[in-house]
Amino acid sequence: MYLCNIMVGNERKPHIGIFGRRNYGKSALVNYLTGQNIAIVSSVAGTTTDPVRKTMEISGIGPVVWVDTAGLDDEGTVGRMRIEKSLAVLDQVDLALILFTKNLFEAEEVSLVERCRRRNIPYLLIYSQSDLSRPDEVLLRTLESDYHTSVVVLSVKNEQLREPLIQRIRQILPETSYRHASLLGDVVAAGQQVVMVTPIDSSAPEGRMILPQVQVLRDLLDSHACVSVCQPTELQATLHSLVQPPYLVITDSQVFNQVRDILDDYQHAIYLTSFSIVLARAKGLFDEYVQGTPAISGLKDGDRVLMLESCTHNVTCEDIGRVKLPARLRQFTGCDIQCETVAGLSDLPRPIIDYQLVIQCGGCVATPQQLRARLLPAIEAGVPVSNYGMALAYLAGIFQRAMQIFQK
After folding, report:
1. Which phi and psi angles does 261 have, rounded to 5°?
2. How far is Cα 138 from Cα 327, in angstroms, rounded to an integer?
3. In the predicted model, what is the mean pLDDT of the chain?
């Protein structure tokens, strides 16, 4: 279980990154869009040194997070580090605003567009500071033809251009980043009985449920399902107290074996899955996980497994990703598997091709784009990817059963 840090509130909101060279008006654009002096604006090149985030409500979308970045043409050793930080923001955004001006669209801008294309990130080209440098119409038409997109001409001194720009952002921001589809509404009907098994151990946050459990519970209530919640030790009593057998049991992945044994002793066939698998399906990488999970059986002595956590959390002796899952991998394979954990968006300790398997957490605090960007290097390198819940189901010998509710 996870005690997520304070950044959780922002992570599931759409992120819109603002990129460009130094002194191209990125910080001024943040202030222009929000109507506040959030970012420091200066004629001194390199004023923005680290990504700056500001949340703003956009009508028809809801809250979004603007991310102001350092210039892509920064210089020196520290400058290169700033550029790397700016480019790393691409792994977090659902839309990129690429600023250019002075009629220059050169290596920095072309490289950024190509990075967006490889990651399937929508982008908007903005000719900034048009009051200082008149745009060349031939250049604009060429860019629109080459990149199959319109170019927005902008001056932050013209207030009348703000709403058309926001309207354009509304048009190209992916709906999946702010309109979250039901987790289970297509497989659980109104009135059907669902039992949630939520173990409480030393890693559980004090006085509350963990985020995946809350998200699934809310989704089931929105679908008008009848929901019962219990710990594993009360599951048997809960099943016998129900007038009708439950249609589905959703459990924390770490007690798959215990829950399966109880259901096997019950006289009715019941679908079984986990919170992590439910979230994996909602995040859009379900097929990749299904294909990659059986690679567990091929692990050998000395193989490395990368454990990816979307959040940072309080680690305990009962931690699923850092303690229990690695132990079960070694027990299942009988091999000395080397497991390395990376939290949040931290850099990997070694090249992705050095790993034989990547296992991602449920991603309850991440957007689909953030998860896909995080896993894209592994997918492109041919490294199998899995999910905490699917890996634990495979290790428990019930992988197909845990998928069955979504395949019927």
Report:
1. -60, -40
2. 62
3. 87
Gap between the Cα atoms of 147 and 124, Å rounded: 10
| Contact present, 183 and 250 (Cβ < 8 Å) | no
Q: Cα–Cα distance between 243 and 316 in angstroms, integer?
A: 39
- Stretch (H or E) spanning 237: helix 235-241
Dihedral (Cα; 371, 373, 374, 377), 10-degree rounding: 140
361 token code pair: 């957490």
Helix (H, G, I), strand (E, B) or coil at 340: strand
Three-state SS for 157? Answer: coil
Cβ contact 124:152 at 8 Å:
yes
The two counts, helices (H) then strands (E), for the chain are 15, 14
Cβ pair 282, 181 in contact under 8 A: yes
CA angle 375, 150, 86 (to 5 degrees): 40
Phi and psi, residue 112, nearest 5°? -65, -40
Q: Are 381 and 252 in contact (CB under 8 A)?
A: no
d(CA 292, CA 399): 12
What Cα–Cα distance (Å) separates residue 270 from each residue in 220, 223, 236, 244, 396? 17, 19, 13, 11, 17
Map tokens 């509130």 to a residue: 9
Angle between helices 399-407 and 388-395 (to 10 degrees): 130
**Residue 183 token pair:** 């987790």
| Amino acid at residue number 191 | G
Q: Would you tell me the crossing angle of helices 275-282 and 399-407 to the nearest 10 degrees?
A: 50
Hey, is 331 helix, strand or coil? helix
What is the C-alpha separation between 129 and 333, in angstroms, rounded?
Answer: 60
C-alpha dihedral, 391 to 397 to 399 to 400, nearest 10°:
170
Q: What token pair was written down for 91?
A: 């792994």
Domain architecture of the chain: domains with CATH: 8-177 (3.40.50.300), 193-279+399-407 (3.40.50.11420), 288-395 (3.40.50.11410)
**Kindly report the CA angle at 141 between 140 and 145, in degrees rounded to 5?**
120
The pTM score is 0.71
Question: Tens digits of per-residue pLDDT, 271-319?
Answer: 999 999 998 898 878 999 999 999 999 999 999 999 998 765 444 445 7
State how far the Cα of 14 lies from the Cα of 65, in Å rounded to an integer.
6
pLDDT digits (tens, 9 = 90+) for 190-201: 999 999 999 987
> What is the Cα–Cα distance from 186 to 281, expressed in whole angstroms?
12
